[in-house]
Amino acid sequence: MRFVCARFQTSAEIALRFYRCKRLTIQRDNKGYTSTPLRGNNSQTINQYKTNPKGIKQKTMATLNTYLNFNGNTEEAFNFYKLVFGGEFLVVQRYKDSPGCDGIAIGDQEKLMHIALPIGGNILMGTDITDPMPPATLGTCISLSVDATSEDEAKRLFESLSAGGTVTMALEKTFWNALFGMTTDKFGIQWMVNYDYK
Question: Are 77 and 68 in contact (CB under 8 A)?
Answer without folding.
Answer: yes
